[in-house]
Amino acid sequence: MTTAIVGLGNIGSRLATGLVEGGESVLLAGRDLPGTKELAGRLGERATAVSVDEAVDRADVLILAVWFETIKELIAQYGDRLSGTIVVDPSNPIAPDGKGGFTKIIPAGESSGQIIAGLLPPGARPVKAFGTLMAESLITAANRTPRRAVGFYATDDTGAGETVARLISAAGFDPLSVGGIDQSLRIEVFGDLHEGTLGTVPTADEARGLL
Ligand SMILES: NC(=O)c1ccc[n+]([C@@H]2O[C@H](COP(=O)([O-])OP(=O)(O)OC[C@H]3O[C@@H](n4cnc5c(N)ncnc54)[C@H](OP(=O)(O)O)[C@@H]3O)[C@@H](O)[C@H]2O)c1
Q1: Nearest atom, ligand 1, residue 73 CA
Q2: Which of 2, 9, 63, 67 is positioned for an S-S bond with 88, CB 3.0–4.6 A?
Q3: Cα(50)–Cα(52) distance, rounded to whole angstroms?
Q4: Cβ-contact 89, 116 below 8 angstroms
Q5: Closest ligand 1 atom to the C-alpha of 94?
Q6: Which residues line ligand 1 at a C-beta cut-off of 6 Å?
Q7: Which fold has domain 3-210?
């Protein structure tokens, strides 16, 4: 199984680190090829820098670690090549509010998970995951004892969910399904299971109690 991460900013670079440290191999695709190669070099032989085009072609699991609007652009550009691909969406649909905080850029009751899933072509396999924690927590809360259950995910595709659950586990967390993609709202920013709302990264047992 080939896993690719598109976008190597706060989330993508930490996720790449966590997955490689957990024994996974990853393709890394950023806009900045020298920077991507430098990151791949630091992570070692399990990480390979590729173009976005190559990542789309080779990935069984494509993690789109870019902003919500960029995900929409990537789907517009590459969507017809994503049939059969597990597409992981960690996005939180927010933008700076000009007052030092963030504001939601889609209607309050809507989730980026459902919007992105709706934009993907038939046959693509959307999973909402890896967006429930602050980027730093992807490293600082990983592989703790007891294990932290940052690994909330939402999908309508059981097989895709199991595959992503394995990646969540490799990244150092206990995976926990919150249900179908219509439950994405709960694990996105301002949702009741998001780290920003909880103010903490729950243990697996605590997280189960919240479901
Ligand atoms: N930061 C968090 O704590 C956090 C937590 C949960 C979820 N999220 C979500 O995770 C996603 C990524 O957030 P982030 O904080 O990692 O953002 P970020 O640090 O700004 O990183 C985004 C990356 O995407 C790259 N990029 C932009 N357009 C691209 C394209 N067309 N092809 C390939 N790469 C492209 C950017 O490259 P350039 O450097 O060239 O612009 C940048 O490296 C967002 O949807 C966000 O809502 C973030």
Answers
A1: 31
A2: 63
A3: 7
A4: yes
A5: 47
A6: 6-12, 30-32, 52, 65-68, 70, 90-92, 131, 134-135
A7: Rossmann fold (3.40.50)
